[in-house]
Design brief:
Distance between the termini: 23 Å
Shape: elongated
Structural class: mainly alpha
Number of helices: 5
Largest sheet: none
Order of helices and strands: HHHHH
Number of strands: 0
């Protein structure tokens, strides 16, 4: 039990650090980096990046709530399924916004002859594909949670 408390505490510290870093990126870093860009690029980029960061912050809050359920030994409850569903939706929205933003940037590069360069589209392909992995893994984990919750309910009936 002590080991799980240490792991939960360590995870909460990392979640707090990640959330603080994302807020700094959202408020200070990204606007500063985009300040010199043309307005036609700056506004869409700021919107896309802000929505993706907001989705990640939602995931952090949901994981925090799941850790609370773990500490209270209520992981196999309806409340945990709602938080996992919120994670899935946040990841889905974040991935969709990121993929559409990347696709729009690739389209601008493709249709502008002086910008036509395969480097940026190829560099964006990897992060778009890799960012789908957490979403797909959470879908699998949600199914496992539902299955484990069913087994837990059956076990509680037997006992």
């Amino acid at each position: 039990m002590l080991r799980s408390r240490i792991v939960v505490l360590a995870l909460r510290v990392v979640l707090l650090l990640a959330a603080a870093w994302l807020v700094v990126m959202l408020v200070l870093s990204i606007p500063g980096e985009l300040a010199d860009e043309a307005l036609a690029f700056r506004v869409p980029a700021q919107i896309v990046l802000s929505l993706v960061i907001a989705a990640v912050l939602v995931v952090i809050v949901c994981v925090w709530r799941l850790l609370t359920l773990v500490q209270r030994d209520r992981l196999f409850s309806d409340a945990s399924r709602r938080w996992v569903d919120a994670i899935v939706w946040a990841l889905a929205v974040g991935w969709a916004v990121f993929a559409v933003g990347a696709l729009a940037l690739v389209a601008v590069i493709f249709f502008t002859p002086e910008l036509r360069d395969p480097g940026i589209p190829m560099a964006l392909f990897g992060p778009v594909v890799l960012s789908a992995l957490p979403l797909l893994l959470m879908l699998v984990m949600r199914g496992l949670l539902q299955q484990a919750s069913g087994y837990r309910a059956e076990l509680d009936e037997v006992i």
